[in-house]
Structures are given as structure tokens and as C-alpha cells.
């Protein structure tokens, strides 16, 4: 088996056993990148020299007994909306095209303290606003399964990098499904932790009350290993929460006997592709065969989730993105007459169309006279959705459904109709509104050979139940082989 | 008959809190410092940075709220006030709109007209902005974020004041109270206390308010008084001329004693306030509020009562000394060392007040330490120096807080205790001034003053004037 085909935990074991050096791992991933990047565009930036240098340093620190964790020495890809000290962090936007942070995000620091080698920064939708990675100012990322399709978004670069074996694992961020949906489109595992479980410090905010950082991995056990590193209370993030027991590996139990799994009927309506529906229900059936109790139920309020989400997320975004003004860092318009014109020109030219659309939407819903009618109402809906889930979790351990209505759409199809694109988030955004953890893993392929994502949602801070059910399903399903470089794009031009 | 007008005034007072670190990060709040040295990713609005509330800010805000009889909001939140300006690193200010920390309070003020209750609408917490420096030579503007994130409270009164006198009384009362609480030093010049005046006029008896204006840039009590007079006159003139007052924000120029419009209500910004999702709500328990209440230090009225009981000094002195927490602290600390409240009070009332007035300084700027102050009193008590030397030394202490003992020693200012030397000089003076001697003998007692002066002159001021006077009388009587 090639190194690149191992999962992160397996590579970590090999490094620990001295069967493979960190430098070999780094070199192998750089080769993979070299072979495919032109075709796939998973990364916005990576620095070969820095990777090799860091690999040597990590090897030494492993030898010195400083890095002892499971993932020490394993190369990782970071979504380009997380600050990395001394490494350009763009949010896939022209407005931050040259921004080099003076500090690292807490999640990045935690990985580095665990001995991670950062390969580079992955492509994404600009400021995480999009579901396809097409709104990036640095070109679209292609789906490694078929380069005519999108990898999903907004963490499309991270999901594609893991699927294309250009990284053993990656960090993504999820505001309305941005980890889970691309993981689904790319046939990898993606987890959005409970709001507050992972520090947001250093994550360039989109919708602050919804954003969470989480892992994108090849296997459920990798997901557990990364979660163990990431879940730590951070005094720099007021919304960060102390979690007592963070041994997620313990939850890797192949057993779902008597676990109650609810299937929301509302998720299986007309908008859902029949192939996705079939694959997801088959997965439920397989879990049932292992002793899980599967039950359909009415979740309710599903139709209100999208308008509530796009009201709250854009309102927060309109404020969060105000700091990008050309004064302190990033892009500044070259010619202008006075302060106000500088602001206007900088933001007009620095932001892409989708970002501007959401800033305008968000500014509108916060405007005096509209605040009560839109923003406050959306907050009320959010509270009701949370209640609906609380109610459901009184009955069920886990909620099972599809991650998206379809498999990955073709490049260019989604941006033509933003409303349609927004509606594609229907199954993922509720978890963000209610602060719940969710995991997505592949449960089959459609007739085009594109992966289908199975989503499991849990109650707050019940990541372990998700990991247990996901792991059990993974055991039932068996290996889900990733497309290798030669198969990328099914032999079509990439 | 000319119409009678009354003025309606409400104040918005910003007070910089005396925390060591900023409201949402660990940077120092120290005034001054090289530009952008007291900064970090949080207070410079770096992407990805997050605010974390400094608990001390809540403590101070609650203590001011309790001292001003406010209701403390048990579940309060921060909101973002969105507006673009370069001194505002995130282009939103973290403030409180919907659920401010304190509401519905009042304080009582004393003026010539008697006691009056001024209601407080609310007190909220917020962050200060950075400072813009316009470089005319380079034709550019620079931003210093040292002040960005310094904690403020804004105390908003109801429109309950009707004159400059009342406004000054209200501000003095607030200032003293907050100084006594230790929540701020409240220096108007340095901007740690800033007041915006909302003012309207109406005909006496009119049930509705007139259109108000908001006056900014008021840096002293005098400026506030002048601005109120000027704005009242301006509004009355507009009304008398049949024109209307425009609701607007005006900026006071105290040098020109004139205000000009900054922006009118029409260009008022929509701040798009909404709860800051990066901060968790502040939930305060009864225990918390009671703990803060129990920690409130002695306020002025209590201090006055205690002084009356403990120190044998005039009520007038007590009133003057307690008008400044700094002065009262100095009084108490010095008295504790020298056990002579009367002397300490005398020095403060006479020399200290004179020097403050002459040099145009605030009591907060007094630098004399209690230790040195007590030493000086000791020097006069044991007659090591005479009173005129003592005054000279006191001024030196006022300027530089020098140690009076070493200063007196270094400069040889001790009173000459050598009777022989004094006698020799006095005899010489009698010999050299026959006319004055004759005048004295003829019954002009005042002539002795001249002779004392001559003696002091020759002895370079180091003679004890009482001893000199006595010796002159002794020797003259023997002539």
C-alpha cells in the first residue's frame, strides 16, 4: 500500500514505529500535489521548503519525545480562513490576497503542538460563502472523482485534498454545512462539532454564532483522533466550552444495538434525488440489521431553516466583514479621492459578487425598521428549531439523513441560481442553527460514480454517539476506496 | 413683554475606567506610550481575533450603578454598533444598546437653588476607539490603536437639568463619586471624563420639549458652562427670528467660544445594532451584586461625617478637602504620620490651594507624598525652619516632591539657633538704624517690623522671626 493511501492514524503509527520518516510522508504528499494540483486546485498556497523544513523539525521532536500523539508527523491541510502565523491567509478573497497573520488560530496551534506538518492552505468559497468552492477568487477546485463537478463548499479545497490524497486530513469550517456537504461530495468523512467545542479564535468569521472548525478525514477513526486534539477550552474564545471527556477513540465501537435512530420524514421529500434517497435508506437498513432501532418522525420547521439561516448568517457577516476596509491590511484600491471613496472602491473591487450579495442582504436585515421583522424573527425561529431538536433527542440518540439533496453538481450550474444553491443547504443548516454536532460519511455512489453522503446529527456534546454510529456503519460498509491520481476525472481531461 | 425661556439639558457622560487592561484583551490601558505599542490582534481588529470581557469592567460599572441608585440588569448583553471610521479597528464598536448594565438611577445635586434630583436613564459599557493623527505636512492620517479597547462607561441622564450651574454640579458630583469608587480618575483634560450636552429651549410653561442639539468637544467645566450659555442664546435667537432649531450634533470651539454643526439628523447613521455573537451574555447573581455593594468604599458624605468626628478642623476645611478624593487621601495619610490634622489642613487650605490656583492645576495633579508632607510639618513644629522658609520648601515639594529634610540641609535653610550670632546681628542692626530706633522709642511700635526685616535680611532669612523680635525688644528696652 502506498503511503498516500493510508489513513492519518495508520501513517502516524508507521512514523512512530520508525517505519517511515516524517520527511518521507511530506515528500510523498508533495509529489501527489505536484502530480494533481494543476488539474484539481485544492490549495491556494503551499510552500515546499517550509513543509520540508517543518518535517525535519517534527521528526527531531518526535525523536526527542516532545511530540508523542497519534498524529505526530502527519501532514495536514488547513482551510484558508484560519490564521496561520507567517503564512498567507486569504479567505479565497482578493481583499486579503496578501494578508499574512501575526498569529495562528488556536485550532492550528493545537495541531502544531500535536506535531502536525502543515502542507498549505486550501481553497474555499470566498469568506466561506458558497456551497461549491466556485466563489473563490483563486479559481474553482475540481472534484477528484470527476473534474467536471464541484467538490462542494465552502471547505471544498480541504475535502478535495483529502479525497485526492493531497493531505492525510484537513481542517474545514462549517457555518451551514461547509464541512459536511463537501465531505459528502468528495466521499470523505467530515465532522462539524457542537458549537463551542472547538475554539473559533483565529477563524476568520463568517457567521460567528454558527461557525465551527472541524476535521475532514479519510476514516471515522481519523476523525476521532483529530477531535481529541481540537476539543480544548480556549480562554481566547468566550463561546468556547470545557468538555470533560475527550477520548473520542473510545467511541470507536462497532455496536449500535438498541441505539435509537430517528429519520426525519421532512428530509425525504420531493427535492431529494432518488439515488441519494435510496443509498441513505439502505444505510439505515444496514444499521437496523445490526440492532439499531430505526424510526421515522416529523422534525418540523424544516422549511423555515433556510430563511432563518440566511438572515442570521448574513447579518453577522455584514458586520464581521466590515473590518476589511483597505486601512490596516489586505487590498486597497489604487486610486481614490478621500476616505469614503477608498472604502467604496476597495470593497467594490476586493469582494466577489456572492460576498457582496450577502453583505447587502445582512445589512438590510439589520437596518432600523427591519431589524424586528427579519433579524429578531430569525432568532426566534432559531430558538424554535433548537426546541424541535431537543424534543427529537428526547426520543432518539442520533438523527440520520442525507447531507445534500443531490451529489456534486457540475461546475457552473449552481451560481446561475443562488436561491437554488441556498436551498441545497437544507439538510445541513439546522445543525448550525441549533448548535448540534453532525458527521457525514460516504454511503455509496450514484450512477455517475459520484459519492453520496450520509449525515448523522447528535445532541449537543454527543459527538461520541455520532462517532460510534458512524464507525459501526463504516464497518458494515467496508472500505470506500478514494479515487487515485490516475482515476481522477475518470480519465477525462483534468 | 419679552417671552421667557427655560433650558432643558440632558448629559451623556463617558468615563474611562481605571482597569489595568483593556475591556476585551490583555493590553495595557496606560495613557501615552509610543503609538501602537499597547496593541494586539484583538484591539487592532485583526481577522479571526475575538473579544473576551474583562470582568473588572463589569465590577466598576456595577459599583457606579449602585452608587447612583440604579437598577442592575441581571441579564445584560453587548451589541455591535456598526460604522466605518479608521479609528474603529473593526468598523464596529462593541457597546450596549438593548440591555445596558444599569438603568433608572438618580443622584442629588446641591446648587444655590437647593437640592435637586437628576435621574439617570442608563449606564452602559463600551470600548473606546483609537486616535487619528492628521499629518498636515505629509498630507496623510495615521492611526494609533493604543486607546482602542480602553473600557468606558456612558452615563446617560434624563433631561432634568436647566442651567450650566446644575450641569457643573451634576458633573462634579459624578466625578467625585466615581473617583471615590476608584472606578476612574475622571480627568477632563486627559479625556478620561467626557461630557456631551443635549440642550433644547422652550417657553416657560410649554408642555413639550423643543428640538435639541448635541454639543461635543467640551474639555473643562468652564467650556461646558460657556457652551451651554452660547447654545441657549443661539436657539432662543433662532426661535425669536421665527426660524427653527435643527436637530444636529455641534462641535464646541472653546477658543472661539463658538459651536458649529457637525452633522444633522438627516445624515444620522443607521448603526445596525445587533447583539455581538462573539460575547456571551452577562448574568449577574444577587450575591454578585451584594458583594459589589459591600465593597463600595466610603463616599464623600460618609467621609465628611467621619472627619467631623475624628478631626478637630473647621467644617469649611472638611468641605474643601473632601471635594477631591486625592486631596482627602493626602490629608488622611499625612495626618496618620504626623498626628497633626490642624497643621495639615492649614497647609492644604492656604498654600496648596494658592499653588493649585497659581499654576492652574487640578487636585489630581498634586505630587507631594504624605511622607514628605509630614516631614515638612515636623520641620516647622520643631522650629528647624521658620515659616517663610517652610513656604518656599513647600512650593519646591509641590513642583518636584523633594524630600524637605535633605533639601533644607543641602541648602542650609535651618533657622539659626545660635543666640550669640543673633545677638551680634541685632546689635549691629540697632547701631545701623538710629532713625528706626528713635521711632520705636517714640512709641511707634511698627518700627520694630523694619528692624526684624533688616535682621532677617542680614541672616539670609534663617533667623527665627519670633526670637528676633523678642531680642530686639529686650535690647531696645535697655537702651
Give the gist of this structure.
The complex is a heterodimer of chains A (494) and B (479). Chain A is 39% helix and 13% strand.
Report on this structure.
The complex is a heterodimer of chains A (494) and B (479). By secondary structure, chain A is of the alpha/beta class. Chain A has a single domain (3-265, 392-491), classed as Amidase signature (AS) enzymes, CATH 3.90.1300. In chain A, 39% of the residues lie in helices and 13% in strands. Chain A is built from 15 helices and eleven strands. Chain A has helices at 8-16, 22-40, 48-63, 106-113, 156-163, 180-186, 220-230, 274-289, 302-320, 339-350, 353-366, 371-395, 418-423, 429-434, 463-477; strands at 43-46, 75-79, 117-122, 169-174, 189-192, 212-217, 260-264, 293-297, 398-402, 438-445, 451-458. Chain A has an eleven-stranded mixed β-sheet, with helices on both faces. In chain A, α8 links the parallel β7 (260-264) and β8 (293-297). The radius of gyration of chain A is 21 Å and the shape is globular. Residues 487-494 of chain A have low confidence and may be disordered. In chain B, α7 packs antiparallel against α8, α9 packs antiparallel against α10 and α12 (419-432) packs across α15 (465-478). Helix content of chain B is 40%, strand content 20%. Chain B has helices at 55-67, 164-181, 221-240, 286-295, 300-310, 315-321, 325-338, 341-359, 370-381, 387-400, 404-410, 419-432, 434-441, 447-458, 465-478; strands spanning 5-16, 71-72, 75-76, 79-82, 92-95, 102-111, 114-127, 131-135, 140-144, 151-157, 193-203, 213-216, 248-253, 258-264, 274-275, 282-283. Chain B folds into three domains: 5-288, no CATH class; 298-410, no CATH class; 419-478, Arc Repressor Mutant, subunit A (Orthogonal Bundle), CATH 1.10.10.410. In chain B, the strands form four sheets. A nine-stranded mixed β-sheet of chain B has the order 2-6-7-10-1-11-12-13-14. In chain B, strands 5-4-15 form a three-stranded antiparallel β-sheet, with no helix packed on it. The mean pLDDT of chain B is 92. Chain B contains 15 helices and 16 strands. Chain B is of the alpha+beta class and 479 residues long. Chains A and B meet through α9 of A and loops of B.
Amino acid at each position: 500500500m502506498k503511503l498516500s493511501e493510508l489513513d492519518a492514524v495508520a501513517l502516524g503509527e508507521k512514523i512512530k514505529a520508525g517505519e517511515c520518516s516524517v520527511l518521507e510522508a511530506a515528500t510523498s504528499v508533495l509529489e501527489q500535489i505536484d502530480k494533481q494540483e494543476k488539474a484539481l486546485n485544492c490549495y491556494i498556497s503551499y510552500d515546499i521548503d517550509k513543509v520540508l523544513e517543518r518535517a525535519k523539525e517534527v521528526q527531531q521532536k518526535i525523536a526527542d519525545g516532545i511530540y508523542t500523539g497519534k498524529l505526530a508527523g502527519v501532514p495536514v491541510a488547513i482551510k484558508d480562513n484560519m490564521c496561520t502565523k507567517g503564512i498567507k491567509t486569504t479567505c479565497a478573497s482578493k481583499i486579503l490576497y496578501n494578508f499574512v497573520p501575526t498569529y495562528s488560530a488556536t485550532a492550528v496551534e493545537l495541531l502544531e503542538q500535536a506535531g502536525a506538518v502543515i502542507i498549505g492552505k486550501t481553497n474555499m468559497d470566498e469568506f466561506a460563502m458558497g456551497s461549491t468552492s466556485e466563489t473563490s477568487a483563486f479559481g474553482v477546485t475540481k472534484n477528484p472523482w470527476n473534474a467536471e463537478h464541484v467538490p462542494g463548499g465552502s471547505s471544498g479545497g480541504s475535502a478535495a485534498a483529502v479525497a485526492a490524497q493531497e493531505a492525510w486530513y484537513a481542517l474545514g469550517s462549517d457555518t451551514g454545512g461547509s464541512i459536511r456537504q463537501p465531505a459528502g461530495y468528495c466521499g470523505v468523512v467530515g465532522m462539524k462539532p457542537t458549537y463551542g467545542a472547538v475554539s473559533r479564535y483565529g477563524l476568520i468569521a463568517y457567521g460567528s454564532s454558527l461557525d465551527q472548525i472541524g476535521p475532514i478525514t479519510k476514516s471515522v477513526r481519523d476523525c476521532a483522533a483529530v477531535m481529541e486534539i481540537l476539543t480544548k477550552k480556549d480562554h481566547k474564545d468566550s463561546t468556547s466550552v470545557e468538555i470533560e471527556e475527550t477520548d473520542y477513540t473510545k467511541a470507536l465501537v462497532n455496536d449500535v444495538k438498541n441505539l435509537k435512530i430517528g429519520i426525519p420524514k421532512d428530509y425525504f421529500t420531493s427535492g431529494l434525488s432518488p439515488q441519494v434517497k435510496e443509498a441513505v435508506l439502505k444505510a439505515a437498513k444496514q444499521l437496523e440489521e445490526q440492532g439499531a432501532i430505526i424510526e421515522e418522525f416529523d422534525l418540523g420547521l424544516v422549511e423555515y431553516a433556510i430563511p432563518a439561516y440566511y438572515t442570521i448568517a448574513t447579518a453577522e457577516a455584514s458586520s464581521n466583514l466590515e473590518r476589511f476596509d483597505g486601512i490596516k491590511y489586505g487590498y486597497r484600491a489604487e486610486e481614490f479621492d478621500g476616505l469614503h471613496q477608498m472604502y467604496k472602491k476597495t470593497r467594490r473591487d476586493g469582494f466577489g459578487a456572492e460576498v457582496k450579495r450577502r453583505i447587502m442582504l445582512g445589512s438590510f436585515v439589520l437596518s432600523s425598521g427591519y431589524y424586528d421583522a427579519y433579524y429578531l424573527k430569525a432568532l426566534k425561529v432559531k430558538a424554535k428549531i433548537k426546541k424541535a431538536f431537543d424534543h427529537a433527542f428526547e426520543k432518539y440518540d442520533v438523527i440520520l439523513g442525507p447531507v445534500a439533496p443531490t451529489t456534486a453538481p457540475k461546475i457552473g450550474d449552481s451560481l446561475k441560481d443562488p436561491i437554488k444553491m441556498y436551498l441545497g443547504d437544507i439538510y445541513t443548516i439546522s445543525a448550525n442553527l441549533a448548535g448540534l454536532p453532525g458527521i457525514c460519511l460516504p454511503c455509496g455512489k450514484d450512477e455517475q460514480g459520484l459519492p453520496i453522503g450520509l449525515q448523522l446529527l447528535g445532541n449537543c456534546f454527543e459527538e461520541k454517539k455520532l462517532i460510534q454510529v458512524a464507525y459501526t456503519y463504516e464497518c458494515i460498509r467496508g472500505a470506500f476506496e478514494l479515487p487515485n491520481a490516475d482515476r481522477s476525472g475518470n480519465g477525462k481531461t483534468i | 413683554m419679552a417671552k421667557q425661556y427655560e433650558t432643558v439639558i440632558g448629559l451623556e457622560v463617558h468615563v474611562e475606567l481605571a482597569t489595568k487592561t483593556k475591556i476585551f484583551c490583555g493590553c495595557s490601558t496606560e495613557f501615552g506610550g509610543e503609538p501602537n505599542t499597547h496593541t494586539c490582534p484583538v484591539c487592532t481588529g485583526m481577522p479571526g481575533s475575538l473579544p473576551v470581557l474583562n470582568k473588572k469592567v463589569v465590577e466598576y460599572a456595577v459599583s457606579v450603578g449602585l452608587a447612583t441608585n440604579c437598577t442592575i440588569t441581571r441579564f445584560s448583553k453587548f451589541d455591535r454598533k456598526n460604522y466605518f471610521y479608521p479609528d474603529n479597528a473593526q468598523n464596529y464598536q462593541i457597546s450596549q444598546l438593548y440591555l445596558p448594565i444599569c438603568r433608572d438611577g438618580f443622584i442629588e445635586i446641591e446648587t444655590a437653588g437647593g437640592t435637586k434630583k437628576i435621574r439617570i436613564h442608563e449606564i452602559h459599557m463600551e470600548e473606546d476607539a483609537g486616535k487619528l493623527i492628521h499629518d498636515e505636512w505629509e498630507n496623510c492620517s495615521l492611526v494609533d490603536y493604543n486607546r482602542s479597547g480602553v473600557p468606558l462607561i456612558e452615563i446617560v441622564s434624563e433631561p432634568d437639568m436647566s442651567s450650566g450651574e446644575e450641569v457643573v454640579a451634576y458633573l462634579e458630583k459624578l466625578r467625585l463619586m466615581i473617583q471615590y469608587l476608584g472606578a476612574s480618575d475622571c480627568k477632563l483634560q486627559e479625556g478620561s471624563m467626557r461630557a456631551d450636552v443635549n440642550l433644547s429651549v422652550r417657553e416657560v410653561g410649554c408642555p413639550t420639549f423643543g428640538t435639541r442639539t448635541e454639543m461635543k468637544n467640551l474639555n473643562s467645566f468652564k467650556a461646558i458652562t460657556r457652551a451651554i450659555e452660547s447654545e441657549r442664546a443661539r436657539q432662543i435667537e433662532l426661535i425669536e427670528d421665527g426660524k427653527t432649531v435643527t436637530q444636529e450634533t455641534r462641535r464646541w470651539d472653546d477658543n472661539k467660544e463658538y459651536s458649529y454643526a457637525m452633522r444633522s439628523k438627516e445624515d444620522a447613521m443607521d448603526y445596525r445594532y445587533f447583539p455581538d455573537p462573539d460575547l456571551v451574555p452577562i448574568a449577574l447573581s444577587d450575591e454578585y451584586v451584594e458583594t459589589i455593594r459591600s465593597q463600595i468604599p466610603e463616599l464623600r458624605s460618609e467621609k465628611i461625617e467621619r472627619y467631623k468626628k475624628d478631626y478637630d478642623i473647621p467644617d469649611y476645611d472638611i468641605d474643601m478637602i473632601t471635594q477631591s478624593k486625592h486631596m482627602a487621601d493626602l490629608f488622611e495619610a499625612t495626618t496618620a504620620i504626623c498626628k497633626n490634622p490642624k497643621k495639615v489642613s492649614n497647609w492644604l487650605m492656604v498654600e496648596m490651594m494658592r499653588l493649585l490656583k497659581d499654576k492652574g492645576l487640578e487636585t489630581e495633579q498634586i505630587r507631594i507624598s504624605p511622607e514628605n508632607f509630614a516631614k515638612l510639618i515636623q520641620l516647622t513644629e520643631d522650629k528647624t525652619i521658620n515659616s517663610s522658609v517652610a513656604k518656599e520648601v513647600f512650593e519646591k515639594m509641590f513642583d518636584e516632591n523633594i524630600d524637605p529634610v535633605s533639601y533644607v540641609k543641602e541648602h542650609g535653610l535651618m533657622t539659626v539657633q545660635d543666640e550669640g550670632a543673633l545677638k551680634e546681628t541685632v546689635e549691629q542692626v540697632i547701631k545701623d538704624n538710629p532713625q528706626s530706633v528713635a521711632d520705636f522709642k517714640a512709641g511707634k511700635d511698627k518700627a520694630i517690623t523694619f528692624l526684624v526685616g533688616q535682621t532677617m535680611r542680614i541672616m539670609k532669612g534663617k533667623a527665627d522671626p519670633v526670637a528676633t523680635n523678642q531680642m530686639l525688644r529686650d535690647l531696645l528696652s535697655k537702651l
